[in-house]
Records
---
Amino acid sequence: MTVRVAFLGLGHMGAPMARNLAVAGHDVIGFDVSPTARAGAAEGGMPVAETAHEAVAAASVVVTMFQTGRQVIDAYAGTDDGDGLLAAAPAGTLFIDCSTISVEDARAAHGLAEAAGHRALDAPVSGGVVGAENATLAFMVGGSEEDVAAAEPLLSTMGRRVVHCGGPGLGQAAKVCNNMILAASQIVVAEAFVLGERLGLSHQALFDVASNASGQCWALTTNCPVPGPVPTSPANRDYQPGFAGALMAKDLGLAADAIAQTGVDARVGLLARDLYRAFADGAGAGQDFSGIITMIRSGSDDPGGRG
Ligand code: NAD
């Protein structure tokens, strides 16, 4: 049976994800509130609806890929009575939200969908725009076993790894926890290189030791924040992303929300949030997040000037 998929949010991530579904033979109709995004998708050959209602009217799966939790909840529930996606979709539609949003918002979105007689999953991704284009994303999924099984063929068309993390919101929980580990380890690897510099230790010597010792981690061996030891790391191309500082700052804000909600003593995670916020407010918004080494080296929260 052909499953009609409405794909809403045709931005940097959503456009290539929707295209991969269409190329694999799924019946996909796209929609974005931005006329430019709609025109871009239509030029690429994707059927595009003129309104969100038109997109979801005959869908059995609705995928959303927006920026924020507010956008997801407003789109689901509508801002005026009856104008939301939940009211417009056929009963029992599977809503899959791939946006990175807070655990709390994801649970609220699940609740709204279920109250309206639908099914829901939170399915944030890692792998960035390159992963979206090459269909190599990793999906972290929260929701029921049955709904994950129903979504699996679509998710594995857009990515190469699907992990069912547990019930509603736990896909987002896995995403914020992983990115908190990543942020803190990237910061401390950068601090270690700057400390080594001041002590007269070469980048290569520190790398050769730490990458074969207990300091080994992805932030060092793949995303090495100094040029040289790992030729493919963003440090070798002036910190072009990669994963942009602004996105890391956003994800750490979501981690901080979860920390506040649970009362966990996560001081390192909160400090990482503060440092990445300063980095993204300054020169780092569009740089790879490993570029935070420049801020650490300068000893200032605004190494390259604003903008
Ligand atoms: P983007 O801003 O490029 O795309 C979001 C799109 O959603 C925009 O085109 C916007 O017009 C559209 N939109 C917003 N509200 C809408 C609505 N109600 N109906 C239809 N369309 C609507 O953002 P992006 O870079 O594609 O990121 C999307 C999500 O994926 C974010 O939550 C981000 O944190 C996450 N993410 C991004 C990356 C990345 O590298 N860009 C990596 C992993 C996760």
---
Amino acid sequence: MFKNQTPGQLSLFAAFTSAASISAVVIGLSLFGLLAVSIKGILLLFGMVLVIDYYANYYFVRHYLYRKIKLIYKVIHRHKMSGEFNSGKVEMSRQILSDVEREVDEWAEKNAKEYEEMEKLATYRRRFIGDVSHELKTPIFNIQGFIYTLLDGAMEDPEVRTQYLNRAAKNVDRLQAIVEDLETINKLESGQMALDLREFDIFELASEVFSDLEMRAKDRNTRLIFKEGADKHFQVRADKESIHQVLVNLIHNSIKYSPEGGTTKVSFYDMESYVLVEVSDSGLGIAAEHLPHVFDRFYRIDKSRSRDAGGTGLGLSIVKHIIEAHKQTINVRSTPGQGSTFGFTLEKA
Ligand code: ADP
């Protein structure tokens, strides 16, 4: 009943109760002949108590409320009170308590969300630092081993020296690749990488990537081709440089994770306002339980294979970040032993 009353209504109700109680006592005393008061007197008494008590309640409620509410606002607004409370007044005709209750609820909800967000970020940061140090440890440990072994005398043997220096150099390259990929991820995640959206021909760009990766494909005897019937030219609107990186990462993976003599096919499909670009291989494939994780940072199905192929475990994570920065989607389907298809969309120009 009193849930949504204004402070003014509450003061009036309290005053009315007091006035009625006092009048009832006076009437009772009169009935027993202990007091001689006329009806007029009782009405006057009732009116006076009502008015005096109303103003007294009003004054105390106002001051009490003001102090309490000011305290609440100080806490929830971090000293920035709303204008009403700054002026030192409480608007008594408003349902001030339900307003404050609502604001405190909103504040609590916002705080809970902020806290949850901070928890997530803290967990992410902890995992990220753990992953990075774990990834850097292996090449550093290897380089350390080769250098100390050389210093301990192995460098006297020219053959061993060349071999160890080559291995150390390979590990330095790995370190560099990890740091460069981490830098890219960091730029993408912090939103520092501004997209330079331009129109370009996606078929032309894929042809360029085929040329860039020609040597790697030749090394593994892999054919890089466009799928017949899905080899049309499409003008898309995207950041050319980052889409170049997406295609390099996907096509490079298709070469790395396929047995020698495989085929990588790139195809383009018209989806009204989008173009679907697919990179398919005839490689190892990915088991269903790994599929949801392949875009995760440092996720590798076969760690040693990835490392031997110079992988950082960040390639697909970068690809996903880039596609999402374009507000587009990427997905993968795969059959172990038959091959995988990575497909992403791009906005048509
Ligand atoms: P990496 O540097 O290890 O290649 P990626 O992020 O590019 O890292 O890929 C993550 C993992 O997903 C790889 O280690 C590999 O196990 C798997 N993978 C990626 N592409 C393919 C593919 N085309 N066929 C099979 N497995 C793949």
---
Amino acid sequence: MTILLGIETSCDETAAAVVQDGRVVLSNVIASQIDLHAQYGGVFPEVASRAHAEAIGVVVEQAMREANTRYDQLTAIAVTRGPGLVGSLMVGVNFAKGLSLATEKPLLPINHLEGHVYSLCLVQPYHEPSFPILVLIVSGGHTELLLMEAHGSYQRLGGTLDDAAGEAFDKVGRMLNLPYPGGPNIERVAKAGNAAAYNFPRVKLSDDSLDFSFSGLKTAVMREVTVQINSKHEAQQEKGARNKLQLRKDISVADAAASFQCALVETLVHKTVRAAKLHNVNEIWMAGGVSANTLLRDKMRSLSELPVRYPPLTLCTDNGAMIAAAAHYRLQAGMQGSLDFDVVPMWNLSKKTYEE
Ligand code: KG4
Ligand code: ZN
């Protein structure tokens, strides 16, 4: 049996969780910074690091208390080493190193993307993975298509060439004057909209590659829904600055949101289903913040005959439980604890992820 404490601070959630055997969540505490960053319309790195530093002690203590676990009962401590914001990662890693020294428990440095993959092992009831599996990770920072051949073994098939899927949601959300983060808010207003109102581009659908590109879609939405404030008079009236872009008044936000969401989701689904056929996989897994999207879940299920699995909503966005779950399998594969490592802000998931 393993009992692992997982610590996650790579972006804008300070999170800690206790997980048993890589599949039973004993506690899962998440201090979100969404309200802090909403005023900037996106994550402000310096603000994020400071907020992590303020919250981390309390979050970890609460995770241990809610799991009814003492430090001497832990098998090990796991922490996100990367990818992510350098300052944010450092807060988590330094805290975890200190805790590891104080408790004499081994420290396991974990890849955040692998954490997202292992959020699928926390789905109840537990389902034994049937490899090979096609994994689509769609989050604020990443869009990755991976072939997972066994526990811990990944082949990268493709990814975004520009914006990540979640990033595109967040940017379009800002254009439509919706609150941050864009993803859940676009999904909310899109419910009342007509997805066929605008024919936004499904970029690279005809291309044989398994890469994605969302910047063209984002630009197409911008051209359609915004206008430039030209004159000084206009700027005064609109309380904006000259040459700034502004949402057109004759636009239906619901229609634009629904049409954008549909274009992005269709691109993701089309490529994922094609990759699944190409590599003859047994299952499709989706993880990361955007996998919370209902249209994405529904379209993936209806366009693929394979079992499509995704995490519960609370485990789609960043959390410590997924880091502890990934660490369980790393421990099984022989990973040793270490205090001698730095954060890795850019860190792909591949066969060589843990080789140095
Ligand atoms: O996985 P995550 O918490 O952070 C990263 O590792 O980047 O993902 C956050 C992203 C944000 O871009 C947010 O807009 C998006 O996930 N997101 C959604 C939904 N919920 C969160 N996108 C589309 N539909 C949703 N329901
Ligand atoms: Zn994430």
---
Amino acid sequence: MCGIVGYAGPAGSISDVSERPLSVVLEGLRRLEYRGYDSAGVAVVAPGASQVSSRKKAGKLSNLVELLAAEPVPVATAAIGHTRWATHGGPTDANAHPHLADDGKLAVIHNGIIENFAALRDEFIAEGVRFLSQTDTEVAAHLLAREYRSSGDLAAAMRATAQLLEGTFTLLAVHSDLPGTVVGARHDSPLVVGLGQGENFLGSDVAAFVSETRVALELGQDQVVTITADEVVVTDFEGRIVTPTTFTVDWDASAAEKGGFRTFMDKEIHDQPQAVAETLLGRTDAAGRLTLDELRIDESVLRAVDKIVVIACGTAAYAGHVAKYAIEHWCRIPVEVELAHEFRYRDPVLSEKTLVVAITQSGETMDTLMAVRHAREQGARVLSIVNTHGSTIPRESDAVLYTHAGPEIAVASTKAFLAQITATYLLGLYLAQVRGTKFPDEIAEVLTELKAMPAKIQRVIDNGERVRVIARWMDSRSVLFLGRHVGFPVAMEGALKLKELAYIHAEGFAAGEIKHGPIALVEPGLPVFVIVPSPRSRDSLHSKVISNIQEIRARGARTLVIAEEGDEDVLPYADEVFWVPQTPTLLAPLVTVVPLQIFACELASARGLDVDQPRNLAKSVTVE
Ligand code: F6R
């Protein structure tokens, strides 16, 4: 939540939005806008100026760009920029960042929540300081200015300020005394450094500067960074010099562009075959055995695991539900799936034999991070499945398995979901290999099936026209989604996509549950998607779902059925059928969810909604 960009480098030659520091920051904000889009703002420091110059505007970044065109800022050598997801104070011009200190010499931007802001603000008000916003951030500007007045050292002032704040924060600041410098602090919120030639960058994630450099530094918790054109200095909050780890971003700026598609979501749906293929790439040795190189947990520890707890939020949690079916089946280890924000409050029973699997696209979700910390405090091992390199959760885990979905820009998740499911399959098969619960040839067979999935996903995408037509004509105010077994999390994900993209009431149910109450919702014409398992699935799963379709159809529901090619049994009961290729039951979510993603995306687009940036949402949820 909230995107942060900082830049230090040579000044440009003209004072408009094409001037380098400002253009770098605006481009960074454009790429980070998915993190929040309630308002945007910049502050620049021009050499010789007695104050910083700041512009900020409620609404999307385009409003700020218009303002800058009307009211340009001076040529600068350092700049900071912010795109906001509102927490404290509504999405107004006044609450937009940056926030300035009284003397106008210092500007601050912030991501996170300062929990003790009210007490600090009261102290300042008692001293006669006037507050201009309702944000928690403004106290940081006043604190930092006070500390700077006493030490004359912005990095030292930042360290002192950080020690006084409670909560979570990334802060960036510029001061008119230091025209080529940006200082940042990181405590439980993300911040990465981009290393350029004669210029340096800061960003909430690498997307902020990937068009300029792919060489980055991973900052740790509780560190302060100072960037100038030629230097990056990192210390801990006590002022001790720290040497951070360098990494190279493994995707380029074009991966974060629309590439000819109408929206990022359209593009990301089309990226899915590649996201799955890349996540599978290079995971076996010459003998065909799985080798998950990034895993840093000893095989003996994995053999001793007696319980797995998956923690995640939203779509990532639905990937966790799919994982439960696969891992329990392949490894015979009990798997619990828990929403990360509920996890630590119920005092879960954990031991050193518990493997906690945290699934997260961003690697920054605060609820998941806090659950990871709790699990480790209780002695459990934590393995994270993460898409974003340089993020916090892999740093704080015992082991990591990276998905290789590439940057996911649309706020609602699509390709990261498929990559997460794929990574959990790899984990399940790896555990089965280590623990000997599957023969090597059985594992190889599943791997072969998995390698066939990108082509099958591609076929579903290529055949997406019928679901698009249905979406364009859909006028219902409510849609239900039913599934059993691995189809159940797919139903919940289908409902979530529709809620967040099209703002339509949608519910996903286990198909067997509907007769226990939700069937009362069914009325003539109500669209109900049903995910039908393969006729080859076990224990008459298939026929049970066919019965569920009949039950709702008898009550007038309009049945939209997702079924395997050749499954003639569904035809008498389906108002519409969307076919998916034949797939082993456990792997089916990789294809069955795709028509539901296309449906939600198309329906929202047809209604003129912004599918990439739905209302009230932000991509990276860094508050609890
Ligand atoms: C929904 C969606 C969210 C995220 C959730 C977790 O489309 O994107 O539900 O899945 O906020 O985010 P990560 O995976 O970054 O931890």
